[in-house]
């Protein structure tokens, strides 16, 4: 039985990540600290604000933050920079010599690498959120948050590759990494639910793909049973994957690799 | 013909936008390579070898000229072409560092649509051919460079390519590993009929692997001939470096020029078409108290200088 290469790439990378538990433990520790601090701040704020802010109770905030942080912590934070460096240095040239999509292979491999981290963060986050704020506000919605988290990671990876593809033109994708990260933090709803933002910014964030990368699963985990969020994520994944493929396709045609 | 190249040219544009300057990496290169041929495409650093190989494999789009590899235009049908060619870059690994070669082969097998049974059969076959079966389960990062290159070779042979493009595959290898690698390439060509297109700036790669040599310098082909002819005309010189235990007068031998002689060291250039290298070594070992001696090929720059000095044909 012939296996499709994206599946083999995904599995190999996941196995590779599991075989080296050091980086996994570090990112998990970092996630637990950052998410706990942020969740505590929002819980205190909500309590001080009469028990809720923009419709989120203190318990819902806790579940929201542990989920949004998990969606982002599962990824290598410097993925754009690393991919950009591979393009600028010409290392990507070797990948062009395989009869497979370069960007597809990269996204599949990175997704494989991120999934063990994601599931470790989900398990840790669920335990910490339960200890801190009690059981998930709405278990059915929390269950939907699991596939939504996988979609969030996939959307984020596709978007990162579309951004990193800028290195085909500007040779240094570091600046795009910095900008991208801030967009996910704020417009993606990683630091706070989008409803906290001023009206116009909330509307803008809702129309941008960053909401699929943290807000969507966090909104579900915080007890809002909105299955259409998964549909929105799937749509954004198709758009972002298409954008990444288009950027790489155009970039590959203008690749300049001098020397060996 | 397996490869047909007509006036292939590549110009890079470098520098900041306002002061753009052009670098002609490859200038109107024309050549053809027959099926099963072993061709060395040689030149010093910056001559245009790697740029040429990148155009022939479809990575780079030329500025002008045409190329057909296995009947396909590489930069238009790159993905289809990669199913029929193998590529090995000495300075860039195609193996995943954190995986074992066998795991990489599994990935490459899926990419090349091999069923697991066929993949296992091919991996076993390559393990035997390259004497590398015991390396396939060692993480790539733990392999020596020579071992890694054998695994790289296995990786690019997995789909049984018709042509093997090798870009400086022996760079960084020690003498023994180089010799072994060259033997493997010749065996591969003889047993499977794989066309070998090898770039190198190591003169020994030409002598031990290729049947034909094309020399490129400053982006242009300056020499194209059979290695046997090249050997006779250009590669007949060998260099000897010797250290002596005590001062001694070197013997006078026909075809031997002593370039530098001190009390305990000597350097000589030997024209092997006049006196075979073995005869010179025998004479030196008998006549002198030799503590250490080595024989090397002249650097490629010297060969190129001789090409330019040759009368036009």
Write the layout of secondary structure elements.
The complex is a heterodimer of chains A (260) and B (313).
Chain A: H1 5-19, H2 21-48, E1 52-53, E2 56-57, H3 58-73, H4 79-89, H5 92-95, H6 102-133, H7 139-164, H8 167-170, H9 174-186, H10 199-207, H11 215-221, H12 228-253
Antiparallel strand pairs in A: 1-2
Helix pairs in contact in A: 1-6, 2-3, 2-6, 3-6, 3-7, 3-11, 4-7, 6-7, 7-11, 7-12
Chain B: E1 3-14, E2 21-33, E3 38-42, H1 49-56, E4 64-69, H2 78-82, E5 85-89, H3 101-111, H4 116-129, H5 145-157, E6 163-167, H6 175-192, E7 195-200, H7 203-209, E8 212-217, E9 220-226, H8 227-233, E10 237-244, E11 256-261, E12 265-271, H9 277-287, E13 290-296, H10 300-309
Parallel strand pairs in B: 3-7, 3-8, 5-6, 6-7
Antiparallel strand pairs in B: 1-2, 1-4, 8-9, 10-12, 10-13, 11-12
Describe the structure.
The complex is a heterodimer of chains A (260) and B (313). Chain A has 260 residues and is mostly helical. Chain A has one domain. Chain A has 12 helices and 2 strands, in the order H-H-E-E-H-H-H-H-H-H-H-H-H-H. Chain A has a two-stranded antiparallel ribbon with strand order 1-2. Chain A is globular and about 60 Å long. The model of chain A has no long low-confidence stretch (mean pLDDT 92). By secondary structure, chain B is of the alpha/beta class. Chain B has 2 domains: 36-45 and 72-233, Rossmann fold (3-Layer(aba) Sandwich); 237-296. Helix content of chain B is 33%, strand content 30%. Chain B has helices at residues 49-56, 78-82, 101-111, 116-129, 145-157, 175-192, 203-209, 227-233, 277-287, 300-309; strands spanning 3-14, 21-33, 38-42, 64-69, 85-89, 163-167, 195-200, 212-217, 220-226, 237-244, 256-261, 265-271, 290-296. In chain B, strands 5-6-7-3-8-9 form a 6-stranded mixed sheet, with helices on both faces. Chain B has a 4-stranded antiparallel sheet with strand order 11-12-10-13, with helices on one face. In chain B, strands 2-1-4 form a 3-stranded antiparallel sheet, covered by helices on one side. In chain B, a hairpin with a 3-residue loop joins strand 11 (256-261) and strand 12 (265-271). The radius of gyration of chain B is 22 Å and the shape is globular. The two termini of chain B are 25 Å apart. The mean pLDDT of chain B is 88. Classes of the chains: A mainly alpha (260), B alpha/beta (313). The interface between A and B is large, with 29 and 44 residues.
